[in-house]
């Protein structure tokens, strides 16, 4: 397990009871370096949308745990926010909840000639994710999937 995965897993474990108590949903935890700076991003959601107070409360409680446990030895910024309109789909619950919605799947290597696949979510199985688009259905093998996000066209 990489250091990135270990940090994300530990923060997920600490955050899950917080969001459950606050009647929120933990969407994702991301440990990432951008522009020379490290960020610990926690994405939360709830029916009707997340409010600033929700983000502040999760941040305050999680910050207390991070100070006590001290899992990260260098400077970083903690950010707690909603997942936005391009929300990632990760859990089985996400795939059930957003069935019929338009999604964007990116793959590690080209599948059927492309690394990006956009279509209506039909289903996710142990083999792959099936989407419908351009009058056809296609299934992207799970072992090829890099990310899955909701997709909105403007």
UniProtKB/TrEMBL annotation:
State its location(s). Answer: Cytoplasm
Q: Which residues form the Ribosome maturation factor RimP C-terminal domain?
A: 89-154
GO cellular component, as recorded: cytosol
Q: Which SUPFAM superfamilies match?
A: YhbC-like, C-terminal domain (SSF74942), YhbC-like, N-terminal domain (SSF75420)
- List, for all copies, the residue spans of the domain called Ribosome maturation factor RimP N-terminal: 16-86
Coiled-coil region(s): none
* Keyword terms, alphabetized: Cytoplasm, Ribosome biogenesis
Question: Biological process GO terms, please?
Answer: ribosomal small subunit assembly; translation
State the similarity comment.
Belongs to the RimP family.
Question: Sorted alphabetically, which PANTHER family does this protein's record hold?
Answer: RIBOSOME MATURATION FACTOR RIMP
This protein is called Ribosome maturation factor RimP
What is the organism field in this record? Heliobacterium mobile (Heliobacillus mobilis)
């Amino acid at each position: 397990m990489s250091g990135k995965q270990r940090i994300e897993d530990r923060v997920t474990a600490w955050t899950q009871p917080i969001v459950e108590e606050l009647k929120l949903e933990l969407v994702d935890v991301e440990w990432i370096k951008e522009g020379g700076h490290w960020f610990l991003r926690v994405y939360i959601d709830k029916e009707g949308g997340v409010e600033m107070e929700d983000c502040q409360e999760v941040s305050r409680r999680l910050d207390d745990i991070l100070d006590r446990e001290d899992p990260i030895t260098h400077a970083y910024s903690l950010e707690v926010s909603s997942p936005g309109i391009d929300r990632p789909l990760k859990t089985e619950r996400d795939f059930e909840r957003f069935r019929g919605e338009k999604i964007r799947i990116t793959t590690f290597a080209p599948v059927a000639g492309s690394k990006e696949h956009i279509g209506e979510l039909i289903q996710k199985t142990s083999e792959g994710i099936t989407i419908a688009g351009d009058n056809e259905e296609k299934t992207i093998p799970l072992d090829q999937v890099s990310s899955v996000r909701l997709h909105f066209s403007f």
